[in-house]
Amino acid sequence: MSETAEITQNVSNSAGLSVKQIAELNDQYQPLNFEERLHRLYQDFKPEKVMVTSSFAATSAYFLHIISRFRPEQVIFFIDTGFHFVETLLYREYLIGLYHLKVEDLKADSYQHEYSVKEKLYEKDPDFCCSINKISALEAIKPNYDIWMSSLMSWQTDHRAGLAIFEERRGIIKFNPMIDVSREERDAYILEHKLPFHPLVNEGYSSIGCTHCTVKGDGRSGRWLGKPKTECGLHL
Ligand code: SF4
After folding, report:
1. HSE on the CB side for 158, CA within 13 Å?
2. Mutate which of 132, 134, 234 to test ligand 1's pocket (most atoms within 8 Å of Cβ)?
3. Could you tell me the distance, in angstroms and rounded to a whole number, from the CA of residue 130 to the centre of ligand 1?
4. Residue 221 domain flag
5. Domain annotation covers residue 232
6. pTM value?
7. What digits encode the pLDDT tens for the residues 125-160?
8. CA-CA distances (angstroms) from residue 178 to 63, 102, 113?
9. CB 3.0-4.6 Å disulfide test: which of 36, 96, 145, 232 passes with 51?
């Protein structure tokens, strides 16, 4: 196989990266810490082609504080499912003011959202509900970006434990700079910078999503309780 053919092999993402190039990026970024990875990403890729999302959940201040230090003008997308806790919306406003964040809301098509409400899809078919209210809202803007930056950490779920720093997912390159940050390291950063938790953390919630699918509990045990679902599908 010629080098040109090899380089273009399996290119199916907006950044135009081949499997080989993604593997090389992982090799180059692996020895770096997450701050060095972030710094380098904004050099290696066009900053305006980097997409960032936040759920403004339990410890989102951690990721948002870091992003606001590295690129204050970075737009943060918030997927407004219409099912958030009031406390989440208040926390969102609080962090916007605290870190001067540029936040834009993403919403599902209103007709489809109403259908999910009327049919109580969160009870009958949560995958479909997430597909309407989370995934479709994000899919609409994804073609505008080459890189999707996440704050996923490997200790959070079995699925996340298997992720690399760079991964191709449904036409976009996922960038997981914090994938090897331990819970202790994250908590030390939160303590050092006196970051505010989501107000429901004090009430026993550790992972916070939509009201219909979140109860109190350790780790992500309170998400989709009693159902086999552990991820909303955004990161699958
Ligand atoms: S987390 Fe629950 S309520 Fe929210 S979109 Fe998914 S299924 Fe629907």
Report:
1. 3
2. 134
3. 5
4. no
5. no
6. 0.86
7. 999 999 999 999 899 899 999 999 998 898 887 888
8. 9, 22, 32
9. 145
